[in-house]
Amino acid sequence: MEMYDVIILGSGPAGLTAALYAARANKKTIVLGGDRLGGQTAGIAKLENYPGFLGSGMELSEFMKKQAEMFGAQIVFVSAKTISGDAESGFNILGDDEKRYVGKTVIIATGASPRKLEIDGARELMGRGVSYCATCDGFFYHDKDVIVLGGGNSALNDALYLADIAKNVKIVYRKGDFTRAEAVLRNRVAERENIECLFNTDLARIRSTDDDRLVVTTTDGADIIVDGVFVAIGHEANTDYLSEDVARDNMGRLAPCHMPTGIFVAGDVHADIKMQIATAVGTGCTAAMDAIAYLNSKN
What we know:
Blueprint: E1 3-9, H1 13-24, E2 29-32, H2 57-70, E3 74-76, E4 80-86, E5 90-95, E6 100-108, E7 112-114, E8 130-131, H3 134-137, E9 145-149, H4 153-163, E10 168-172, H5 183-191, E11 195-198, E12 203-208, E13 214-218, E14 223-226, E15 228-231, E16 235-237, E17 263-265, H6 277-298
Parallel strand pairs: 1-2, 1-6, 2-3, 6-17, 8-15, 9-10, 9-15, 10-11
Antiparallel strand pairs: 4-5, 5-6, 7-16, 12-13, 13-14
């Protein structure tokens, strides 16, 4: 079976940065990139806070992929199902293509996914009015009424994006203000005439109507009629494929110091870092350099 020096799980900025560094160091490198290139970055319509780049998240992801491939990294769109083995015998990764990939080191960069809304009707209506990706599904709500649930940067960015498409956008947030969001986003939201903010409010139930609209019931019993609900209430790390004995924090993220020898962590799955593209790139670089140093020490 083919042996890789470095197997990288995830094709977001962390994974692609790690692939660039590992391949450029002449290490045999493969990226198991999941079901799509770029992870969450791919869904960003316009990047404003990644230094030196003002395009879309998908454009950045494509560029990073080509750069890693230029130095010999192999990128396949496969997700890990299980990891077994160790640094001595080699790490054995079963992919969802039912193939096995064996490597001397592994870099976990599988990122995080939007936290699901757990109220009546939310799961049943996912894809039929309830969405977790404004840039993916916003097109379908031209000149319609939508709700954005959440109060962080992601929620306000989604609301601003949707305000250019929808007729009216209501931001529903369970706290009294947007202190978790950047000031520049708060100011932009305040300036938009078609964005309304409902503070100290949460959702209790969602149901559909006969004309394919949604009745959204708040926790204080009020009903709001809209066409779509966009959920932005945080993230959970994509670590379900790891065994239960791997230590995680309350978001499912991993502390590198608790990982077995030969396994490194990067990006949004890394505990105790800010979830930003810049930090993902930084930890991707660090994980790759640590993996390279480890491999060189074994020669």
